[in-house]
Amino acid sequence: MNVAVDAMGGDHAPGVIVRGAFLAVSELGIDITLVGHEEAIAEELSSYRSADHITLHHCEEAVQMDEAPLKAVRKKKDASIRVAFGLVKRGEADAVVSAGNSGATLAAAVLTLGRLKGVDRPALASIFPGEKAPVVLIDVGANVDCRPAHLFQFGVMAHAFTTSILGVENPKIGLLSIGEERSKGNEQVRLARELFKESKLNFVGNVEGRDIFTGDVEIIVCDGFVGNVALKLSEGMGEVMTKSLQRELMSSLMGRASLLLGSRPLGRFKRKLDYEAYGGAPLLGINGVGIVCHGGSTPRAIKNAIKLAAQYVRDGGVDKMTGELNSIEAETFAS
Amino acid sequence: MNVAVDAMGGDHAPGVIVRGAFLAVSELGIDITLVGHEEAIAEELSSYRSADHITLHHCEEAVQMDEAPLKAVRKKKDASIRVAFGLVKRGEADAVVSAGNSGATLAAAVLTLGRLKGVDRPALASIFPGEKAPVVLIDVGANVDCRPAHLFQFGVMAHAFTTSILGVENPKIGLLSIGEERSKGNEQVRLARELFKESKLNFVGNVEGRDIFTGDVEIIVCDGFVGNVALKLSEGMGEVMTKSLQRELMSSLMGRASLLLGSRPLGRFKRKLDYEAYGGAPLLGINGVGIVCHGGSTPRAIKNAIKLAAQYVRDGGVDKMTGELNSIEAETFAS
After folding, report:
1. A297 to chain B nearest CA, in Å?
2. Which residues on neighbouring strands pair with residue A4, listed in sequence order?
3. What is the sign of the dihedral through the CA atoms of A114, A116, A118 and A119?
4. Which of A174, A203, B182, B198 has a CB 3.0–4.6 Å from the CB of A196, allowing a cystine?
5. B143 and B113 in one domain?
6. Judgement on whether residues B41 and B139 belong to the same structural domain of the protein
7. Hey, is B278 helix, strand or coil?
8. Mean pLDDT, residues B164-184 taken together
9. CA angle, B275 as apex, B272 and B276 as ends, to 5°?
10. Which residues on A lie below 8 Å from B144 (Cβ)?
């Protein structure tokens, strides 16, 4: 197993990325190819005693966070994210992990590996810690302006992912809207609803923002703008709440005693809110494995994203998804 | 002070609404006019010993949650929400509170009271408990398909509200998007950004979902679809997290001891997440005062919404907003 990691992508690249790669090597026994500028990476590598199982793959360029994704990827042929997917294309790596410009990661994946059959627009899926079960939210940022047909495809891809990778049978799918009533929601959602209703998917109708945390449905479909706002909002809320809880408890003697006694259950509570545990969001619909991480990822988040990428590869995720996509397409259009 | 309360609106109407009205009368000393079907309300009223300061205003109809708002309000001339705003129009009440169909509340407000000068589309503002300061999110559900010019007007209205009612000088305004970088965001947001930049408002650029909780900006502008998803998501996340914290602490002896010792700081933490404290969202841009409550509001939430309505009236909120709108319009178009 060899995971190509975009060493130039992320707010704290390459330092944090290199550290995450080291954690993956030592804790998970995965080989890593760090893709990026030799000098910058070598400097980071020099602070570690041994770099076994880590290979450096030099490239000259990198896509910056503020660049227009598609344009940058097309222009910069030697950008780290493009080179990383190139390694997968040539069979020199099994998957890509990047904390860089997510639009550029998407563009590089499509340009280099292509899309799976039946997929017009690959999308980012994020796994939320629902109260009853994990909830897959798709899309969380790959596609900001979507047509209803794209939303439907996101549902099909998430169905395939949830069935084949997460092992959930016949997952319930909801469309993220602003009310369960049929007349509510914007034009895009109203039209997508009809497509889902005509399909063989286990579509339950509209769901609301609160359902991302209940786990009543396993899949929630929305456009990448709404999904990204939801993702960032819940990350921010989790952080603020954890800090606020600690501050309140630390502000009194009784509270500090409470913090001491309750350290284990409080720790479990904190871990539930911990988005780093998921590491990153899988890019669904590309002909390969790519995991997109938060720009501000910690080394631990990078390590967990590498772990997710390796699991995806080991599970034969892409083949399973191809099979699911074919079977759903056949069923949907046969009806 | 007399607040007209739509007794037929909400998931648990009229029972919960009547109970909320009683709380408002006894705790706040506000007179209430309950608008709705006499029989249904009288039955609820009969379980209370005294109905002092509560008037019943009969009407035959009500707008249901699943009706198309504008159509329903136009057709049902005797619907409770329309009759309630009619009371304000005739000077028989000072404000309206409703937990019913929010689109119908908006439509009835515009139809009956009209819009303030310079406002094309009234919008719903919700006050979030930011880490540093409260954050006003606008729109949270009144307008699902918006043009860039509408987003700009939401910003102007929120500026007026935050300045005149919350007393914040020169509040910072951000546009909710999916990245701080200029190239990110959908078409609607990219165009709205230009309008804000050309104005005299204290516009800081794009903000992300996480900023709803930091309080780095005082106002966050988005369309009503995204805003409503954000509102419902944070409500749901707050509930799930509070339950999860309690469950974790109750699961062990040490945790239960911790819960006992930390009851006061934990209570303060819980209140911070308590959306009922805000009661409802003010409808900005109408020529009067209307507060929209969550369909699933508790009696306490209804009471707090009545309190907010009364404060808005006492502060002369509508006059102050008219003044602010005029001065911003003059400034913006003079530049």
Report:
1. 15
2. A33, A96
3. negative
4. A203
5. no
6. no
7. helix
8. 79
9. 115
10. 178, 184-186
What's the pLDDT at A183? Answer: 53
Q: For residue B332, tell me if it sits in a domain.
A: no
Q: Which of B176, B211, B230 is nearest residue A209 as measured by Cβ atoms? A: B230
**Residue-wise pLDDT tens digits, B187-230:** 888 889 999 998 889 999 999 888 888 878 999 999 999 998 99
Query: Which residues in chain A have their CB less than 8 angstroms from residue B226's CB?
Result: 225-226, 229
Q: What is the CA radius of gyration of chain B?
A: 20
Question: Is A65 in contact with B181 (Cβ distance < 8 A)?
Answer: yes
Q: Are residues A48 and A178 in the same domain?
A: no
A321 within some domain: no
A31-36 and A54-58 strand pairing: parallel
> Domain total for chain A?
2
Q: Give residues 274 to 333 of A whose Cβ lies within 8 Å of B.
A: none
Residue A331 included in any domain: no
pLDDT digits (tens, 9 = 90+) for A147-190: 898 999 999 999 988 887 788 899 999 999 886 554 556 788 88
Give the tens place of pLDDT for each residue, A220-279: 999 999 998 998 888 888 777 777 777 777 777 777 777 777 777 777 766 666 666 667
Query: Does A41 share its domain with A80?
Result: yes
In this structure, the answer to whether residues B270 and B303 fall within a common structural domain is: no
Q: Which residues of B touch A237 (CB under 8 A)?
A: 210, 212-213, 234, 237-238
* CA separation for the pair B123, A255 (Å, rounded): 41
Q: Which residues of B touch A10 (CB under 8 A)?
A: none
Give me the numbers of helices (H) and strands (E) for chain A, helices first please: 13, 11
Cα A123 to the center of its chain, rounded Å: 9
Domain range for B246 is 124-275
Residue with tokens 């369309």: B223
Q: What are phi and psi of B312, to 5 degrees?
A: -60, -45
Residues A292 and A173 in one domain: no
**What CATH number does the domain containing A63 carry?**
3.40.718.10
Which of A64, A183, A246 to mutate: most B Cβ within 10 Å?
A183
Does residue B258 or residue A20 have the better pLDDT? A20
Give tens-digit pLDDT for A51-89. Answer: 789 999 999 999 998 888 889 999 999 999 999 999 999
Looking at the fold, whether A307 and A264 belong to one and the same domain comes out as: no
At residue A284, the pLDDT reads 95
Question: Measured between CB atoms, does A215 come within 8 Å of chain B?
Answer: no
Helices (H), A251-334: 253-261, 263-272, 299-314, 317-334
B78 and B131 inside one domain = no
Between CA A124 and CA B165 the distance in angstroms is 41
Amino acid letter, residue B281: A
| Cα B263 to the center of its chain, rounded Å | 30
Please indicate if any CB of chain B lies within 8 Å of the CB of A149. Answer: no
- Pick B131 or B287 by higher pLDDT: B287
B206 inside 8 A of chain A by CB = no
Chain A interface, best mutation among B132, B213, B266, by max A CB count within 10 A: B213
For residue A335, is it within any domain? Answer: no
Interface test with B, best of A210, A231, A254 (most B CBs within 10 A): A210
Q: Which of A225, A250, A275 is the last residue of a domain?
A: A275
**A117 and chain B: CB distance < 8 Å anywhere?**
no
Q: Domain boundary residue among B250, B275, B300?
A: B275
Among chain B residues, CA nearest to A186: B144
